[in-house]
Amino acid sequence: MKAMVIHQYGAAEQLQLAELPLPIPGEGQVRIKVAAAGVNPVDFHVRNGLLKDTGTHQLPLVLGWDAAGVIDALGTGVQAWQPGQEVMVFAPIGGQGCYAEYICVDADLLAAKPSQLSMTEAAAVPLAAVTAWQGLFKVGQLQPGQRVYIHGASGGVGGFAVQLAKARGAFVYASCSARSRDYVASLGADVCLDYQQQDFAEQLTELDLLFACVGGNQVLPRALPTLKSGGRLISTFDEIDPALAQAQGVDYQRMWVQPSGADLKQLAELLQSGQLRVQLDQVWPLHQAREALARSESGRALGKVVLQLAAD
């Protein structure tokens, strides 16, 4: 099968098109013929060597950990799924990824693809939407009527987070650029802050939750005074000394998203009912994964970047 792999860590040129053996599903697994694969910031961070010294991966490594496609084969013991079913999946980041024609994953990580979504749209959902879901509700414990600020609202995770927070009944502040203001407002943000013109740290107080979907610019230490006593500061990437947060009565956590078929199925229900929508930024063919990653790395994507392997 064709796959985009890295043989060593580093910059974009390390990503190469290769021919790999067809994977065989193990017990409790299914093999998916990948129609489209989502592109996320974790992909270029891993390529750059984020986990290089942790023993997490073996090279050559296929990048990308969310996908949509059609079940192609079943491992032993799988009864809940059948070949030919259309599915989406958030594959474990510790394993081989989805920039490939086929991937084998545990059957309990799957969710049925919502019927109204194309494969390309469905591939944009799993990792980003599950990150938003877990960050807001499992880690952030967001409740109806609370005030939440979503930092980085126009990206993949942020776009889903705005919609989910609003659907939960929260009052949503969101950061974005002037060019993405209309888009973020359309997702349900009550107040959009132009991060190029407005400093959220000077604008906001008494927040129940601050969800930092992107890092940089000393966001976390600047965020502490905006939270009420007992408020929660959740980061998807940057870290801060927990003692600093504790001293200000803030519950800080650097979250690590976990693949969850149960979470993904709840998100699929929201998509199926129209309560959640997908925004695609740009779609690239598999062999242009370098360009797709560069788009993601630029920080200018409005929604999700996706690799398309088969026609919708």
TrEMBL record:
Q: Per its UniProt record, what CDD domains does this chain match?
A: MDR_like_2 (cd05289)
Give a yes or no for keyword Zinc in this entry.
no
Keywords attached to this Swiss-Prot or TrEMBL record, sorted alphabetically, are: Oxidoreductase
Q: Domain Enoyl reductase (ER): where?
A: 10-307
* Source domain of life: Bacteria
Say if the entry is tagged with keyword Aminoacyl-tRNA synthetase: no
Cross-referenced SMART domains: PKS_ER (SM00829)
A Gene Ontology molecular-function term? oxidoreductase activity
Its EC number is 1.-.-.-
Q: Which InterPro entries match?
A: ADH-like_N, ER, GroES-like_sf, NAD(P)-bd_dom_sf, YIM1/Zinc_Alcohol_DH_Fams
User: What name is this protein filed under?
Assistant: NADP-dependent oxidoreductase
